[in-house]
Amino acid sequence: MTSPLLLRPLNIGAMRLPNRLVMPALTRLRAGPDGVPTDLMRDYYAQRASAGLIVTECTMVSPQARGLLGCPGIYNEAQQQGWSKVSEAVHAAGGRIFCQLWHAGAASHPTLQPDGGAPVAPSENRPPLDVFTASGTRVPSDPPRALELNEMAGIAEQFATAAARALAADFDGVEIHGANGYLLEQFLRRSTNRRSDEYGGSGPNRGRLVREVIDAVVEVAGAEWTSLRLSPWGELNLPVGDDDMDSYESAVLHASKRGLAYLHLIEPRASGAPVREHEALGDVRAATVFREIFAGPLISAGGWTFETAEQASEAGVADAFAFGRGFLANPDLPERFRRDVPLNPYNRPTFYGGGAAGYVDYPSLDASSLAG
């Protein structure tokens, strides 16, 4: 019997994945108040080592990058050591893990900033989004502070320094977070980027910071260990229009030129955008549009089931597929798909923050079911 495509190996960068099922970044807010990964996080990631690839939750590249309490960082020695325990446990269980590098930008609050100042952004106009304060209260965002021209190199350097720490923590690679309305995507969108200098205006200008971050990280980590995540047409946190796509094209073309390990795209249906039906697969605009200009492996995220992802794989839509809630509730998701057994239901109230409940207590298949 022919094995499903999703359960066959795939080469990305310098790695060979045993399957094409990716555990994407999932915000879980279980880190310590200082952003240091906990032993509970170590256990959580190790449980899911059978994924073809694990991508960590969004991980702060600097104190300025903070957008939520409970998110981990990778900008100091204690955080690096905490992540080392995670990567060691994942590798001991036979897994592969990339660290997702993140800067919240305007999706933050002064109470989360190290100096109590305004969060940074491309422009001073306030994005139409709600943010959390340090007390956990959800409030409308404050007007951010526009980054000065001479600060741009420092943003790229934050990502590069974080990438160096991630590799020192024995991560297999890094994923640059350019999605979901955070700093890098704030530069890509016309609604939040009102700059009139070389970082604003045209698509290539709005994509400049993403390109510079890619170059800075590749210089440290190497292209084969560097990847990029984008959410074109996604409406999570920010409004979007078709006239934003020229900046995404600029970023994707550069990622392809630099030979990144993979491009990870969030489909519109997973980001709050109105769905446009695409044959039998639903709305897969991101994959179908940007696959034409990215030469490397493509990962697609957003509402996939095993059946629809297998169909999309056969159609050449993407090379691998992300299953966020699937891996959240099913540590052994590839084995469940392989044996065609029911999935654990997820427990939404435990998604963000808390302890072991809804985090490391989801059951795996027991030995008897595996033997049968």
Give average pLDDT, whole number: 91
CATH architecture title: Alpha-Beta Barrel
Largest sheet properties: 8 strands, parallel, barrel
The chain-level structural class is alpha/beta
What is the number of strand segments? 15
Total domains: 1
SSE order, as H and E? EEEHEEHEEEEEHEHHHEHEHEHEHHH
The CATH topology annotation reads as: TIM Barrel
Spatial strand arrangement across the major sheet: 3-4-6-11-12-13-14-15
CATH superfamily: Aldolase class I
Model regions low in confidence, pLDDT < 50 over at least 5 residues: 272-281, 367-372
Shape: globular
Query: Termini, distance in Å?
Result: 18 Å
Q: Report the radius of gyration as a whole number of Å.
A: 19 Å
- Total DSSP helices: 12
Helix % is 25-40%
Strand content: 5-15%
- CATH C-level label: Alpha Beta
